[in-house]
Amino acid sequence: MTESVSAPPSALTTQQVVELTRQLNYGTWRFQKSWNPLHIADAEGCYFTDGNGMRYLDLSSQLMCVNLGHKNPAVIAAIAEQAETLAYASPAFATEARAELSKLLLDVLPSGLTKFFFTTSGTEANEAAFKIARMFTGKTKIVARYRSYHGSTMASIAATGDPRRWAMEPGGKGHGFVFAPEVNCYKCPIQHTYPSCGIACAEYLEHIIRNESDVAAVIVEPVVGTNGVLVPPPEYMPMLRDICTRNKVLLIADEVMSGWGRTGAWFAVDHWDVKPDILVTAKGITSAYVPLGLCATTQRIADYFDDHYFAHGHTYEAHPITLKPAVATIHEMQRLDLVRRARRMGDYLGPKLQALAAKHPSVGEVRGLGLFWALDLVRNRDTREPFNTMAQKVDGTPLVVDKVAADLLKRRVAIQAWISHLIVAPPLIVEESDLDFAVDALDASLAIADAAVS
Ligand SMILES: Cc1ncc(COP(=O)(O)O)c(C=O)c1O
User: Fold this and answer.
1) Which of 113, 141, 207, 334 places its Cα 20 to 30 Å from the Cα of 181?
2) Which of 118, 165, 256, 258 to mutate to test the pocket of ligand 1 (most atoms within 8 A of CB)?
3) pLDDT, tens digit (0-9, with 9 covering 90-100), for 13-58
């Protein structure tokens, strides 16, 4: 007879959890010495709770990924069910979860994307996209843009425009990546003004393609995420589609962050009815409950590999425990009508954030779409000079946005900050009262940035 064993009481104090984590783990994208991570002990809906029982509004959905909010019962049940039925199968096999998700993806992805490769992160999904583009076209170069992030692994970091790439320059960087100017009408990198510019940044990208030759693909975040929620003017994405088609270059849409209802459409490209050749996504595909990425291609690309060697794979490709929760996530998004809800709540949030801009001299611009917004903070509204630079981000200088974010945390609002802007991207289930709470806290904490205005 076996004796019943009760679960041991939690062995670690909050202080021990924090100490063990910072001593034994690397903190990402930072100097290690100053890392003092908050212990998250629990989370539900749009809030999480720390080890001392304090509750915080999760205003950036962790890393802009917990789109359904925390503890969605249907997604949790899907993980448990799949673990009991079939916890793992080699990618060589067909599984019910794989078939079910693939069929469902055809309903929600932009039309024309019909063949799927699954990964366990956004960066791996981009690696797959680059290899597929290179094999399919027989060409090498990838054109990316400066204000972008495509992931941390070797090809994805080489395609990343932001300073997270710099530590790999030049020797550690994959070859064949070329940078074009981003679309940023608030601070145009080529000093033009919309609309009289005629979308010169897109025209310049075409100039790059023609002069480089050997270009396999262009990769863009249709709405740039971490680098400032840069929403392109309506002409930009259709123009880019046309440029890629005319130059026989594939268009890769990196929707790791902008997908899954975040912008008030299933995918950001849907706003302009643009059909990419490859769409890459991750994060919200499972509301981040399990690690899943997706590289989706057109049938034209898929057909090529019928008679050509598909030289790519992972042990965890199409891992059943990553796929079944994605099925549940999509069903939950449909049941709760979250894409439309993101649009509606964005209509509520946008004017409130704009009102903050009118009141606070440190807010240079507020921009966004759906439930995806940035507050761009500036030292000087006339020159649009940011408080801090990319170089300061990587040399460890204390940043004004980090001070604002730390003050917000004291007011029980957790927010992502990057160089000189804050990203507002709450779970898509957020209520108006949560947004009111967030805007009040922002109103108070922005005083810190206002005091640094020159
Ligand atoms: C647009 C974009 N692409 C790729 C990635 C990389 O995804 P992951 O961190 O899952 O590798 C990210 C992560 O933030 C992202 O925002």
Assistant:
1) 113
2) 256
3) 999 999 999 999 999 999 999 999 999 999 999 999 999 999 999 9
d(CA 101, CA 361): 48
**132-164: per-residue pLDDT in tens?**
999 999 999 999 999 999 999 999 999 999 999
Mean pLDDT of the chain: 96
Please tell me the predicted confidence (pLDDT) of residue 1: 36
pLDDT of residue 125: 98
Atom of ligand 1 nearest to the CA of 123: 11
Q: What is the pLDDT of residue 8?
A: 56
How does pLDDT run across 386-411, given as a tens digit for each residue? 999 999 999 999 999 999 999 999 99
Ligand 1 centroid vs 257 CA: distance in angstroms?
A: 7
pLDDT at 172: 82
Contact 312, 278 (CB under 8 A): no
Query: What is the spatial distance between Cα 257 and Cα 10, in angstroms, rounded to a whole number?
Result: 35
Instruction: Please state the pTM of the whole predicted model.
Output: 0.97
In sequence order, the 6+-apart residues with CB closer than 8 A to the CB of 190 are: 181, 200, 201, 204
Atom of ligand 1 nearest to the CA of 153: 11
Ligand 1 proximal residues by C-beta, below 6 Å: 121-123, 126, 149-151, 221, 225-226, 254, 256-257, 282
Low-confidence ranges of the chain (pLDDT < 50): 1-4
Query: What's CA 253's distance to the chain center, in Å?
Result: 12
- Three-class SS of residue 374? strand
- Measured in Å, residue 419 CA sits from the centre of ligand 1 at 17
Bridge pairing between strands 421-424 and 385-386: unpaired
What is the position in ligand 1's atom list of the atom closest to the CA of 291?
A: 10
Q: What is the Å distance from ligand 1's center to 426 Cα?
A: 17
- Continuous H helices in 268-372: 299-304, 320-335, 338-359
Residue minimizing CA distance to atom 16 of ligand 1: 257
CA of 421 to the centre of ligand 1 (A): 18
What is the DSSP code (8-state) at residue 311? -
Residue 55, classed as helix, strand or coil, is strand
* Residue partners of 259: CB distance under 8 A and separation at least 6: 266, 267, 268, 279, 281, 283, 284, 285
